[in-house]
Amino acid sequence: MVLSNYLDDCARKVQNIVSQGKQEALKVHHQTCSQDRLFQEALHIAVESYVLGNLHTKIYGAICEKCSSDDANMYDKCQTLDGLTGDQLELRDEFVCPLPAAVVELASLDMLITPFEKLVCLKNTLGKITEDVNTNIEESAAIGQLCETPCLTSDDLIPLLVTVIVQAKQQHLCSSIMLIDNFNWTSTLKDDLSFSFVTFKAAVEYMKSNSFSDLKPAKVHNRKEIPIEELVETCQLNNGDDSVRTEGELSRARSLTSPAATRTERQLAKISKLLEATEELSLGAGYTPLIGQRRHSSNIPDVIPVQDRPRPNLGSFLTSLQGSTLGSSHGRKD
Fold first, then answer.
1. Is 275 left (phi over 0), alpha (psi -120 to 50) or beta?
2. Which comes out higher in pLDDT, residue 307 or 68?
3. Which residues of 184-200 are buried (b: 16+ CB within 10 A; e: fewer)?
4. What stretches of the chain show up as alpha helix (H) in DSSP?
5. What pTM value is reported for the model?
6. How far apart are CA 157 and CA 152, in angstroms?
7. Is pLDDT of 65 > 70?
8. Taking the CB of the first residue and of the last residue of the chain, which one, N or C, has fewer CB atoms within 10 A?
9. For residues 246 and 254, what is the distance between their CA atoms, to the nearest angstrom?
């Protein structure tokens, strides 16, 4: 049993168990492997993840109990700040762009178990933020909107990360941070993991200490993510016939394919048009789609009957030999 008021004692005991397990594991390996730094790091991560994976229910339950108030306040603040954009946090216009990949990555944080898994999730979230922002900068520079290419610094990551946290709406973000902070000893071995964790803690503390009461109106509003059901329905509308659609369905389909739609929706519209064009070309060439329909039967037979084949002019002598059994073997010869 783990009590929420004695997490420090619990962390020290678990750390001793991990250290002992690592030393026992090193004894069964060759001395060359035991002296390899990369091998020791991998072994430490494996032992730590194994021990904490088995203790996850007890430890994480106690942490969630202790951080319940902070988790609830953070979740309520994310709900209040729904639709927050980077320009409202005084972020440069070059860095203001949708970050769907980072939001999806961070949304899986609560489902992960070990502190190392959660730490890697935070690192991947920052990586996807950097990728999306750099892609947006490259696209803006390609069309001549930027005179010089700006550089994304660590100070710019905080407001970008705040917008991602608001959209991800994690219910136990503070508990996950406390779990990593007290029960993870791998981050000290890797600088990139330590940097990611420190950046996340700074973003969370910024959200806790800021009331966000003086926010300016957003220049570009973040569009809500499309649910799976709506995405399937939109695909069906794009593939259907306009004559059987209602006026509401038509207006909804036009709004989803309008210029104001997100990049993902525009790509989906292009794919739908490409599939329609491919289907039209296939029908014009005498083919039909393979899914849901059968191919048209061809008038050309697969095999030409023997009696319909043209016979070459062999002459009277060779023609008389065609029905002869000369040269054919019958039975077994001893």
1. alpha
2. 68
3. bbbbeeeeebeebbebb
4. 7-27, 31-34, 37-54, 56-66, 68-80, 100-107, 115-142, 154-168, 173-183, 191-209, 228-239, 247-256, 263-284, 315-321
5. 0.64
6. 8
7. yes
8. C
9. 12
User: H or E element: which one contains 130?
Assistant: helix 115-142
**198 or 240: which leads in pLDDT:** 198
Residue with tokens 């935070």: 122
Determine the residue type at 88.
Q
- Say which residue the tokens 């037979």 belong to: 301
Tokens of 262: 């997100």
The tally of CA atoms less than 13 A away on the side-chain side of residue 270 is 8
- In sequence order, the 6+-apart residues with CB closer than 8 A to the CB of 48 are 18, 114, 115, 116, 184, 185, 186
- Amino acid residing at 22: K
pLDDT, one tens digit per residue, over 225-234 is 545 444 445 4
166-192 pLDDT, tens digit per residue, is: 999 999 999 999 999 999 887 655 678
Q: Are 118 and 60 in contact (CB under 8 A)?
A: no
Separation CA 111–CA 117 (nearest Å)? 10
Which residues fall within 8 angstroms of residue 185, CB to CB, at 6 or more apart? 15, 18, 44, 48
How far apart (Å, rounded) are the C-alpha atoms in residues 43 and 22?
A: 7
* Pair of tokens at residue 29: 């390996």
Distance CA(71)–CA(331), nearest Å, equals: 92
Q: How far apart are the first and last CA of the chain?
A: 92
How far apart are the C-alpha atoms of 242 and 249, rounded to whole Å? 9
Closest CA to 132 of 105, 171, 101: 101
Residues 187 and 197: their CA atoms lie apart, in Å, by 8
Between 318 and 54, where is the model more confident? 54
d(CA 274, CA 294): 22
